[in-house]
Write a structure and sequence with these properties.
globular; two-stranded antiparallel ribbon; 213 residues
Length: 213
Amino acid sequence: MLRPWKSLLLVPALALAACGGGQNAPVPAENTTGQPANHAAPAKNQPANEPAHKDPVDTSAYRKLANTPPAGWVALSKDGKGDIERHIKKLPENFEYAIAVTATKAPGGTEPDAEWQKWGRNATAGILYRVSTSQEDPQAAITKYADSIAAGVPEPKKDGEVAWTSLQGGEVVLVALKNKHGTYICIGIIQDIENVEKLTQSIVGWAKSIKPE
């Protein structure tokens, strides 16, 4: 039979055993917010919704143009383009080359000067440049750039979204047009003076056929 004083000693000993052998148990921090306690880890910041993949910008899209050259005309080579551009007073810095056609094929880059002179005396070509990413009025665009390109007073004619004028006694034709890529100027150089009117219409017709692909 246990003595009364020994019974009193057993009570705290049992209490200590129930608490893990007398070790201190962790005590939750006091909740002073008035809201239910939530011990879940805080969520990480999520990035804003963005497309999984962005297509690269096609900086040459303005050159991808469907067009119908006059019958018998061919693409103008790089060397031929350089030769034709010598007939321009000054090519404005904002002109971005797009495409070009010619009534007769230019000689090769290694051909002798005599062949180039022969070709150049009767050469006719149209060179298209983008001049602005915005859509300008075609007649206003011709008036804006004519003085830099050739001598003469522009008298723009208009047909829909295309305008044109002849300068320098008919040797230079300017055609302006616009589409989703911006405003374009076609510079036509006509060395075959005997057929100026016909060749002017050919260059204007080519410019009218130009559309984005």
